[in-house]
Specification:
Elements: H1 12-23, E1 32-35, H2 42-49, E2 53-58, H3 63-75, E3 83-85, H4 93-96, E4 103-107, H5 116-129, E5 134-140, H6 149-154, E6 157-161, E7 185-192
Parallel strand pairs: 1-2, 1-4, 2-3, 4-5
Antiparallel strand pairs: 5-7, 6-7
């Protein structure tokens, strides 16, 4: 799969993260949500349909992915959801001018280890600006050698593992989708390590 096409497909992690959002739908109205690496934007669209104020983003270097975000919004009758070009690891005017946020979403953004630090740099920047925000992320375990633990420590972030069975996502078929299948998908919530005094 070519880099430019990553964001043109609904990955299994997106279905799992969308399920988590649906399970927490009563807490979403009025929440300010940013989805990073949104691609086809399934989690962000679900959040918006549940009443959250959503901003979708993908790399400014991938106009096809940004167009995919816009198309998903139009197909789901969400024409007013903003779509921004935000490139991980890069401080841009768009990043600096973001309104306050409560939740950052990212499904399968931890795909290529060369991007891990850029992603966490961006997440750290956003959490520093929004200390009570959380990063809700799902990822597919592709290699036992790939870990973000050292990077979380470096960037003073903490993670909480969310068991899939706790929100009904530990099934091969989820929300009428067979995408989750037999993939090893995990979910975690990342926040600032010192946000609770640790």
């Amino acid at each position: 799969v070519l880099d430019s096409q990553y964001g043109m497909y609904v990955w299994p992690c997106a279905v799992v993260l969308a399920q988590y959002l649906w399970a927490h739908r009563r807490s979403l109205p009025g929440k300010r949500v940013l989805e990073i690496g949104a691609g086809v934007s399934l989690p962000g669209v679900v959040a918006a349909r549940c009443g959250a104020q959503v901003i979708l983003s993908d790399s400014e270097e991938l106009p096809q992915c940004l167009q995919s975000c816009r198309s998903s919004c139009l197909m789901n009758r969400l024409p007013h959801v903003p779509v921004l070009g935000l490139t991980w690891g890069r401080v841009s005017p768009e990043l600096l001018s973001l309104a306050p946020i409560d939740i950052i979403l990212g499904s399968d953004v931890f795909f290529d280890p060369k991007d891990f630090e850029d992603i966490l740099t961006t997440i750290y920047f956003l959490l520093e600006k929004n200390p009570h925000a959380q990063f809700w992320t799902t990822y597919q375990v592709r290699s036992a050698d790939w870990s973000i633990e050292a990077l979380l420590c470096k960037w003073k972030l903490k993670s909480i593992h969310i068991p899939l069975h706790s929100f009904g996502a530990d099934k091969e078929h989820l929300a009428s989708s067979s995408l989750p299948g037999r993939h090893t998908i995990e979910m975690m919530i990342i926040s600032l390590a010192q946000s609770d005094g640790t």
